[in-house]
Amino acid sequence: MSEGAQTEQAAALVTGAAQGIGLGIATALAQAGFRVLLSDVAGALAETEAATLRAAGHNVLAATLDVTDPDSWSHAVAIVQERFGRLDVLVNNAGISPRGTAESTDLALWDLTLAINLKGAWLGVRAALPLLKAARGVILNIGSTRASRQMPGLFSYGVSKAGLLGMTQQLAVEYLHDGVRSNMIAPGWVDTANERKLQARHGRPDFPAGVSNLTTPEQVGAAAVYLASPAARVINGVVLYLDSGLHAADDAGMVFFPDRAGLPFPQRIEEA
Predict the structure, then answer these.
(1) Measured distance CA(179)–CA(266) in Å, rounded
(2) Residue 60 · residue 33 · CB < 8 Å
């Protein structure tokens, strides 16, 4: 993003922005002065959240976006071009995190996970690159500690996030001379409504009890604002971990496995 972009009302497109981490990112960007398109496969919910942000004085729009569909991407980018006239930040946040091993993951789940978490990001980059080049913009891929530190039971998810890390670095190299930067934000455990539902389905209705140093959607949003700012102009091809050091320590005790319920689980005091 150019030095003057923020005063020129820079624009961002955030996927999976109707709730959770995506909404945290979209809100932070809007509060920082960006015009934002909240996109989500749940378009009605995205519009509800956009209306709330507009009521607070922010310049935001909403759109239904299926990240696995090239035509859907074309439509979303066209909205940004028509309504904002530019695109400075593309945030590839939409994703799913199913459980399963190499044996228990079936072909349908593998295809779905890779389509949303990896192919969806590529389709977005491909659709948005002309506008991003014009603005010398920023690609932010929302990854995970599991992009580089794998964990049993997250086979398709871990592979997809590792692929997203590779894509992030490949884009940084390919578009360096176009002025387009590409970075990954890798949160650790984030306490969102969907994460609680997922954990409950897999035997842990008390999540996040026992997990310390949780990341919040607001913290992910603050990181996105920084990486999209002129202050981060020379940051390219990196992973910004927001996991309190989990990627270094890789404390598997922070995870609950229903089939290992008999094993000791470390007692921790959850951060306020």
Answers:
(1) 46
(2) no
Q: What are phi and psi of 174, to 5 degrees?
A: -65, -30
Per DSSP bridges, beta strands 60-64 and 138-142 are unpaired
Burial zone of 266 (CB within 10 Å; 0-12 exposed, 13-18 middle, 19+ buried): exposed
Residue 40 contacts residue 17 (beta carbons within 8 Å): yes
Q: Could you tell me the pTM of the whole model?
A: 0.85
157 part of the active site? yes
More confident residue, 203 or 63: 63
Under the banding of pLDDT at 50, 70 and 90, the label for residue 210 is: low
- Please report the domains of the chain, with CATH numbers, ordered by start residue: 11-245 (3.40.50.720)
- What is the C-alpha to C-alpha distance for residues 52 and 24, in angstroms, rounded to an integer? 13
Tokens 């909240």: give the residue.
38
For the stretch 184-203, pLDDT in tens is 999 877 777 777 777 777 67
**Residue 91 phi/psi, 5° resolution?**
-110, 110
Nearest alpha-carbon partner for 10 in 35, 28, 30:
35
Rounded Cα–Cα distance for residues 171 and 59 (Å): 29
Q: For 77-83, which contacts have Cβ atoms below 8 Å and span 24 or more sequence positions?
A: 77/13, 77/127, 77/128, 77/131, 79/37, 80/11, 80/13, 80/37, 80/131, 81/131, 83/35, 83/37
pLDDT one-digit tens code per residue, 104-140 = 999 999 999 999 999 999 999 999 999 999 999 999 9
Out of 157, 175, 226, 241, which one is annotated catalytic?
157
Give the mean model confidence (pLDDT) for residues 49-78.
98
